[in-house]
Queue: 2 jobs
Job 1
Amino acid sequence: MEQKLFVYNSLTRNKEEFKPLNPGHVGMYVCGPTVYSDVHLGNCRTFIAFDLIYRYLLHLGYKVRYVRNITDAGHLESDGDVGEDKVSKKAKIEQLEPMEIVQRYTIDFHKVMDIFNALPPSIEPTATGHIIEQIELVKSILAAGYAYEVDGSVYFDVEKYSQNNDYGALNGRKLEDMLNNTRTLGGQDEKRGKLDFALWIKAKPEHLMQWPSPWGMGFPGWHLECSAMSNKYLGHQFDIHGGGMDLMPTHHTNEIAQNIACCGKTPANYWIHTNMLTTNGQKMSKSLGNSFLPHELFTGEHALLKKGYSPMVIRFFFLQASYRSTVDFSNDAIDAAEIFYKKLSETARKLASLQQNALTAVDEETDKGINTFCDDCYYSMNDNFNSPKTLEALNNLSKWINSYAASIRNSGEITAQTFERMKKTYTDFFFDVLGLKVEDSDSGDTDELMQLIIKLRNEAKAGKDYATSDKIREGLKSIGFQLNDKKQGTTDWVRV
RNA sequence: GGUCGGAUGGCCGAGUGGCUAGGCAGAGGUCUGCAAAACCUCCUACAGCGGUUCGAAUCCGCUUCCGACCUCCA
């Protein structure tokens, strides 16, 4: 099945066929977190979205180099390049070494990503580990004439850059509009132009994180690290650059300007931006106080939550919307996702041991239908990673799988080839592409125990002692085990 | 204020000109000792007003409402 992958490119505002620079290989850079506090759920959504993209590219057989940075210096606290580095500020507040802050939140971030079953990137470089590369980049931009130094700081000259380049290519804004609408911020006297941004910032003596440079002691501007590190690990040009939509107008715009200034090339061919997670219609952000931390979600300990949800339910909830849409967080929506997820995951669990019946006459229509649903999995993912459509295709397969598992239909009615394809496609997409897991994988002990109880209950049932059998079933249900009697007289159990 | 993007059935959410997703909730049914699960059937919406078209949720215009960015945020 030869199909083409289409990707929505923020740079062109169009869905385009994905053609990697080097056939068979993909270079992908995603802007990672600034590790000065806990990641919140909105951050997680973005990284889960790129995990889906990464997983699908791998599934298609691409050799992917996935670079996602850790910002551990240079990300300023407030505004116009005069604020304090976020990590430094937090370190002062907590009276710790900046690197203690970085270490704590980096570990936390990795844990959370692991809980959400997001694969680690191929390379996870840090800003502080690439100070030399960043200084070299500033030198190149200065040499190219697109930057100027003022009293130990170096600024990017946007107006000069705009003479030959379209500064607003990514954010779609005209230069004059940007100039007219940029608010005047304090402490920017050093800059020649309102839109100029810092490449290197002079550090005050008390600043905790600073490094020697040709311009004196200082630290790098936030936009610089991504240019330096993508250049180093993926080259001047690579395939995909991603991040949250909120990074597009400023961070990515400046990143492109830096790359063009130093290397003459737009770094990435395809720019992919994920949309925001909202709460009650407003962007989830720390400053608005409406953000969730992952553990609050798992435990349900948050004013806006009526219960806790498991990591896979949340991952599934995100997959039910396309990455380019905002997702509004509500209990009702997640409750619905939870039930749907459990249905599909129960199918995945059953599928592992499902054997095909002896072949009978092939029901052509069914056989064809199942193959179409398998095709749909690819078709929908190829359409800009449309995970909601993929879930629909899996749901369609799930109905057949469940019918066969419950002997409502005879699995001998399809060819052995189709049966195997159905199994493989469902498994591949549920686990490998969508990155879902079957939760509550109990130890064998639990199952042995349950089998014993089920046997006792079935003995009671056989003797028509329904009072006892119902007592067992109700008792188990109250502690979280649901028994399901099957047509063949066997009984399954599942956690609820 | 400027720029951009949204508005889909009770709820969530796909869908870019005709073939009228899917999930959750709801109704009915099959199965079952009864349940549960599973399966089957039903429930046919696209903010409002104009326009283009044989035909529009989908294209164009206007209106209303919402959001994002412009200031740190994935």
Job 2
Amino acid sequence: MVTIYDIAKACGFSPTTVSKALNGYSDVKEKTRRLIKQTADEMGYYPNSQAKALIKRKAWNIGVLFQDGENIGITHPLFAEILESFKKVAESHGYDVTFISNKIGDTRLSYLGHCKYRQVDGLVIACTDFYSDEINELLDSDLPIIAIDYSDERVSCVTTDSMAGMTLLYDHLYDLGHRDIVYLHGELTYITLDRIKALKKAAEKRGESFNDEQLIEAKYYSVKTGYSVMKELLQRDERPTAVMVCDDFTALGAINASIDSGLSIPEDISIVGYDGIQISQLLRPRVTTVKQDAEKMGALAAEKLVRLIEQKDEERETLVMLPSIIIGDSCKNKE
Amino acid sequence: MVTIYDIAKACGFSPTTVSKALNGYSDVKEKTRRLIKQTADEMGYYPNSQAKALIKRKAWNIGVLFQDGENIGITHPLFAEILESFKKVAESHGYDVTFISNKIGDTRLSYLGHCKYRQVDGLVIACTDFYSDEINELLDSDLPIIAIDYSDERVSCVTTDSMAGMTLLYDHLYDLGHRDIVYLHGELTYITLDRIKALKKAAEKRGESFNDEQLIEAKYYSVKTGYSVMKELLQRDERPTAVMVCDDFTALGAINASIDSGLSIPEDISIVGYDGIQISQLLRPRVTTVKQDAEKMGALAAEKLVRLIEQKDEERETLVMLPSIIIGDSCKNKE
DNA sequence: AAGTAAATCGAAATCGATTTCGAAATAATA
DNA sequence: TATTATTTCGAAATCGATTTCGATTTACTT
């Protein structure tokens, strides 16, 4: 491994001068700077990020914490889209991205412990469940944090307006004539409760009501659960004319269950999803859904987090994005 | 930030003893060890990975390099499945996982430069194109590396047997009576050439031949390209009875193109994919495809890489996995 | 030529750990 | 009790950088 000491020896200057030359200090003669830079290149020198981080107290590293109910991690389509975009922007600002787990080797470590150990400069959290002690420990810490799809007074957040999203979908179904609607919601997390509340309000605005009997619990990003819950629903004496599902993946399960039950979509039953992940528009029928702009969410999250890290007076903020509706082929007028 | 110096001061021992107590050295009295551990807990101490890495010359960090033609990164379904599994196993061995890009801030940095800078202990590479100078620089370096879906004398690899995979698919179509088959292959990378060669052999074994006119270039994991290439193909005077596609995603494009052209699958044309990603079995029609066991590939890759890092006499090795065929609903007997 | 200002360089301290080796304290033995 | 062996501890060097501040050299003025 080539260090500044090696370079110093090779060209007869002190390590101090080498460091200064490579970091653009003004008190280095242009000629020596050239010499030092050249020999550094020739010797294949790369600064050691550890040594740098130790003295500068900055690791140029951002942690990522993903935790979903189904434990699918990075294969979660929405999270993956957000992370990919987040990563690109973070990298353009000079930060690397490292996954944060709650163990290191065989010993369990809290998430906060892991962050402190790895000395990440900031953290992005995307969880389906924000209510665990470990997450709260993070939210209470002074680590710069940006949370995805959540809202909390303690940290900055990037989220999509539930009211807008649920209203877009409900109104669409309402305008198609549907009154008998069921919502297959996800695990009862913050965001789920928020969406249910929004849904009820959206119904009220149209002079309807959305009752608890119209709610059925499914799981986020679980095709399997979407399938089984929908199967059960279809065995009832009276089936709804339209079904809203918590996300596009689970909606796919519901669609498959309908097809396997001999129904065709949208002729026999209308189904809408949520999130607008890429695959949702590649399926047949194309799912009618609400698009969360994952790319923009990831980019905004990264920009905000970088500001939180680099500017000490940057304040916490909840960035609420407005969703848009994607009209697919999974809904039809109720005749 | 709490350091061993703080702990030392707090309980009247030297930093040396604190370090030893926390690291299980035998020359520390049991009573002092307890005292030190307790105050470390109370003060919320976490070791600083940078300082540790600097002196121990080991970062407990593994780099991930993803590079695909479409630049979809982490949203690549197969890569995501492999990485998720890789990550879990790597973490269980105590390693964190960090993405490696080729820039740090606004200055471009070679991949190898980035690895040296971040001092990763090893690297996992999944690329569609292994032929760039930067990748070769990595393969020639002495960094422990595991490559996914590639084969190279310089590094260890985890790959799936192309011959077996292509034969499974070809034989399946052959047995269904198909003779007029087209292969929509991916970009002409190592693995693509390998598969084409395998396909030709598979045909020969059945007394047939697979000619270059039966090959059409598409792109990996590009639904769009699959769609457009298939559209073009269907405008020919005579369309094939079966189409093999380089992956399940691109196959989805081909399926959609067929449907939009008024064909139904598998009645009018049979289509097979490759990889067996999860979504492929959730679509209707379910795609007939060859399954690369992504979870196992990721796990094996991690285990091998950890061994390469930790055992100096561990030798390079190419782990070839046997694929299996998944019979879906996208193929039918040629009448 | 002398004095001042500016440019150029390097010694040493520092970041937070680990590890060697010697010193001191305690225990074991003669 | 004196001697030896064993525990227990800590001073100091080290990893690879950065940064302060003083020293030296060079350039500029009069």
